[in-house]
Every structure is written in C-alpha cells, then in structure tokens.
C-alpha cells in the first residue's frame, strides 16, 4: 500500500528527502566498539569528578582524607581499574606514605590503619607493625571490642599476611583475627558481601589471591556497599568484559594451536591442559596490553608441561639422557639421537621457539635466548629427578629442595613471563631479564619456587603415587625427621608460609625499577594458591577448577549498560 502524503512528508523530513525511515538499529550490533567508547568516556569522567582533573593531569584527589585515599586505591585495584589510573594511584600512595594519620575516635580506624599498612607494603614500602599497638590493651593483647568490628578484623587479617620473616607481632595478629572471623562466620553474624569476603580470605588471604579472580568476585560485592560509586562500577564491568572478550579470542587461537601440537606429537601420556594453563596465565597478567605476553607464556608453558611429563611418567632413564642431550644442543641435527616417539615433540619445540622469536621486534629478540637457557636448565633438573626415580634414591630434605625448587618451573618461567611484554611499560627491561635469570636466583624467584614445590607436594601426597614419582618433600621430611604424615604436612605447609614472607620482604627491599617484573612473578605464585587450594591439584585434575574457569571466561557480567 502506498504511503500517505503525510507519511512521505515525514520520511522526507527525517531522511534527507530519500523517502525511507532511518535505521532503528544503527550500530547496535557493534557491541565491542560501543563498550570501548563508553569505557573511555567513563574513565575521563572518573578522572574529572574523583580526581578533579582533565586527562592525565590530576594530582590524585588532594582534598581526600587518608581514609578516603586508602579506600579509593583499594577499590580501584580490586575492581581491576588501577591500569587506568596509575599516576593518580601513585600520588595517593605517596600521601599514604608521608602522612601518619591519627585515627583516634574514628569508627573505622582499625580498618583504615590496616588498609594503609597493607597497601603500602604491597607497593614495596616497609611500614612498622608497631602501628597496631594502639589497638592493644594494657596486657598487650588486643581489645575484645575489636570483635564487634568484623570489617576492621578482615582488613587486619589481610594486612598481617604482608608479614616478613620473624615478625612475631603479625603472627599474633593473624591468630587473633582468624579466631574471631571464624567465630563470627560460624555464628552467622556476617552479612553479605562481608561474609563472602571473609570466607574467601580465610581460604586465601587477599594479598595472595589472584587479582583477576578478586575482580570477578568484587564486581558483584562492590555494588552492595552503601558508598559504592556507580561510575567506577560501570567502568569496571565494561573493562572486565572487554578483557574477557580478548581472552576468549586468545583462548580460541591457543586451543587450535594446542590441538594441532598435541595431536602431532602423539605423547598421549602427557597432560592435555591448555585451558587450565591459560587460566593460570590470566592470573599472571589479564590486561589487554599483555595479549602477546599471554600467548607466548601459554605456549611455552604447554611445551614445558609436555617435557615435564615425559621425564616424570614415561621415558626410560636412557631416553631421559638422550632428551636432555638434545635439549642442551637445541639444534635440528640432534633429532637423530632421540627415540622415534620424541622426535616430533623436539621438532615442534624448536619451531615454536622460532615462531615466538619472529613475533618479537628486532630489539626484543635477545629475550628468547633467556627463555631457551631457562628451558635447558629445567631439563637438567628434570634429569636429576629421573635419576633419583630410576635408582629408588631418597635424597635428604636439603638435597631434595635444591633440585625440586628448580624443577618446580619457577626459575624457568620467570624470563618467560617477561618475554612477550611490550617494553613501553617499563617491565621487560634488560636489567629485569638479568634479574630473572641470575645464577643464584633472586629471593622472590627462589621463594616462589619453594611455595610452588611445597604446595604441589602437599597436593600430590594426597593422591595415588605414580611408580616413577620421586619422593616428595613431605616424604623426605618424614624420613629425615622420623615424624608421621600429619606432622610432615604441617611442617611443609609452614615452609610454604615462610616462602610467602620471604617474598614480602624481598619486594620491600628490592630495586624499585625491578618491582614491575617481580610483581608478575608473584602473580604467578598467587595463582598457585587457587590451583592447589585445600590440597587439590587443579592443573593435573582440571575438574577441580572447572567452576572457576566457567565463571572467569563464560558466566555473564551483570549490570553492563551500553
């Protein structure tokens, strides 16, 4: 039916005389571009309203109190927005460092004091634990009234886990806070979202919890806080979804790469765990600017896992010697010395490293040599463990630790974490690679290796042993000290705790220029806490973390507006 004259006149008026209605959809389906544009507008608005500045020239909310400044830094970091506001956060941390606040008479003074302590220590600044003495009564014990401040207790508990070795006062704080938080939780006296945050911290304290997983949880919890900022919440949701969209693209590409690799090398005894390794990777660096680094790290992690399983569960000792010889030579001419079933793996190993090198800029290609040397070093330590296994040798605890910390993967993975990082962010510097591959591993790397080894051995001790498994640190401790299983498990768990405290101290003592690189290694260690939570092994037994994988990559993010 022909349009009426009035309708035609209307269409002409709105459509430049062409006679058609404008599209009702326009760019409705160009979702990612709209989300990104909205996020950029929100970031500018946050900078203007909260920090009182235009793009990049803010001085970090000069009018804020210390409590407000600490809360804002914590909120931005837990929402995953710190990358947007690095300068502003630096200014705020400078204020927290300079100003010793007087919290007397404030209802939330314990919370703010503990939050300030944790934030500064996490950013490499030593703060004396004496600041908590004002919360003690005459006998030296903490005031019983603190039990009525669960938010403050939780902050205190998390802060105390930034302890360095031999800080006995912080041991007392952890025991005190944990006791009361557990009681409040059991009695059902905690409301949401504090109840969920306490439960999470009692499993893994906040300073050791992977940042991406904390953001995933905090997005829902922050909305329930009375003083939440709607702009920050919307920006965080958009940023989370934008990063996740990229993660899914990477996961698809890596899955195709892995499927071709795994099927071509035909090492059916090896773990098929690409998704789990990518989950681990996102715990190290989740931001969009680390896309290349994630892909490179995940690929090398997969190759290392294939080599690890070959030494651990399949190859004869003679084959282990041949594999190590080929790895040390790192040359196609070494293929002939390998048994037939390992030749394709070796070819793929060399070709993948060549491809990784090709993705780097000319001035970045030196990085690959560090990763290769670390891969070779891992092979040497895997061989030493294979010798123990084949000769049924039980090493002393110290001897075991010397080898197994190195075979945990951390000394090898430190330069691999840095290999794909773009150098415009001041992380993957030449000095950082020297630090990551020092002949005597830096305290952060060595202690991370200890945490990895001890958590892995606690988990593996609870499952059926493979006939080729070498004695674990738990078993070596039992044999050397003549103690039972539970006592050995407790001792090894205490050593893992000591490893974390060594990491804390090292981060506060190291060259500030190396801190960005060191934090990436620590992020790798943080993810271990989730992988091995409660004695499980979420990498070997992927079903243990399936729910987390689904939540992180697939479950919808509520509240996104376009």
Automatic annotation (TrEMBL):
Organism: Oryza meridionalis
Entry keywords, A to Z: Metal-binding
Domain Terpene synthase metal-binding: 260-501
Cofactor or coenzyme needed: Mn(2+); Mg(2+)
GO biological process: diterpenoid biosynthetic process
Phylogenetic classification of the source organism: Eukaryota, Viridiplantae, Streptophyta, Embryophyta, Tracheophyta
GO molecular function: magnesium ion binding; terpene synthase activity
UniProt keyword ATP-binding present: no
Pfam family, one: Terpene_synth_C
Record protein name field: Terpene synthase N-terminal domain-containing protein
Gene3D superfamilies linked to this entry: Farnesyl Diphosphate Synthase (1.10.600.10), Terpene synthase, N-terminal domain (1.50.10.130)
Domain Terpene synthase N-terminal: 32-202
């Amino acid at each position: 039916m022909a349009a009426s004259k009035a309708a035609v006149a209307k269409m002409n008026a709105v459509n430049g005389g062409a006679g058609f209605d404008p599209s009702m959809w326009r760019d409705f389906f160009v979702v990612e571009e709209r989300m990104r544009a909205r996020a950029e507008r929100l970031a500018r608005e946050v900078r203007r309203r909260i920090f009182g500045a235009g793009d990049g020239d803010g001085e970090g909310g000069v009018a804020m109190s210390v409590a407000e400044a600490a809360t804002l830094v914590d909120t931005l970091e837990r929402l995953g927005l710190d990358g947007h506001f690095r300068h502003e956060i630096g200014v705020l941390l400078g204020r927290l460092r300079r100003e010793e606040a007087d919290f007397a008479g404030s209802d939330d003074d314990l919370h703010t004091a503990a939050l300030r302590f944790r934030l500064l220590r996490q950013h490499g600044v030593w703060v004396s634990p004496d600041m908590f003495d004002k919360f003690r009564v005459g006998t030296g014990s903490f005031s019983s009234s603190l039990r009525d401040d669960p938010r403050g207790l939780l902050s205190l508990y998390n802060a105390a886990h930034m302890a360095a070795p031999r800080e006995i006062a912080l041991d007392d704080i952890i025991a005190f806070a944990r006791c009361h938080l557990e009681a409040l939780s059991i009695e059902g006296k905690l409301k949401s979202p504090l109840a969920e945050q306490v439960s999470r911290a009692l499993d893994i304290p906040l300073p050791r919890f992977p940042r991406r997983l904390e953001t995933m949880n905090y997005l829902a919890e922050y909305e329930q806080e009375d003083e939440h900022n709607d702009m920050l919440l919307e920006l965080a949701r958009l940023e989370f979804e934008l990063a996740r969209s990229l993660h899914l693209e990477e996961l698809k590409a890596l899955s195709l790469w892995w499927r071709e690799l795994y099927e071509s090398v035909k090492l059916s005894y090896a773990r098929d765990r690409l998704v789990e390794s990518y989950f681990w990777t996102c715990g190290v660096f989740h931001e969009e600017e680390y896309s290349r680094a994630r892909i490179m790290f995940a690929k090398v992690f997969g190759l290392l896992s294939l080599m690890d399983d070959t030494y651990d569960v399949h190859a004869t000792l003679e084959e282990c010697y041949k594999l190590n010889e080929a790895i040390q030579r790192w040359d196609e001419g070494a293929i002939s010395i390998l048994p037939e079933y390992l030749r394709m793996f070796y070819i793929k190993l060399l070709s993948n490293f060549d491809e990784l090198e090709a993705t780097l800029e000319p001035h970045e290609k030196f990085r690959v040599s560090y990763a290769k040397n670390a891969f070779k070093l891992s092979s040497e330590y895997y061989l030493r463990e294979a010798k123990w296994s084949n000769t049924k040798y039980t090493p002393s605890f110290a001897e075991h630790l010397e080898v197994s910390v190195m075979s945990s993967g951390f000394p090898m993975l430190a330069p691999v974490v840095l290999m794909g990082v773009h150098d415009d962010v001041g992380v993957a510097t030449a000095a950082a690679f020297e630090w990551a591959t020092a002949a005597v591993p830096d305290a952060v790397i060595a202690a991370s290796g200890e945490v990895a080894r001890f958590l892995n051995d606690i988990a593996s001790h609870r499952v059926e042993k493979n006939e080729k498994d070498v004695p674990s640190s738990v078993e070596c401790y039992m044999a050397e000290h003549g103690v039972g299983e539970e006592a050995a498990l407790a001792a090894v768990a205490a050593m893992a705790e000591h490893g974390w405290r060594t990491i804390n101290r090292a981060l506060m003592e190291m060259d500030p220029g190396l801190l960005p690189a060191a934090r990436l290694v620590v992020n790798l260690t943080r993810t271990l806490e989730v992988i091995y939570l409660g004695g499980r092994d979420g990498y070997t037994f992927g079903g243990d973390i399936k729910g987390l994988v689904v939540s992180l990559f697939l479950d919808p993010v509520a509240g996104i507006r376009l």
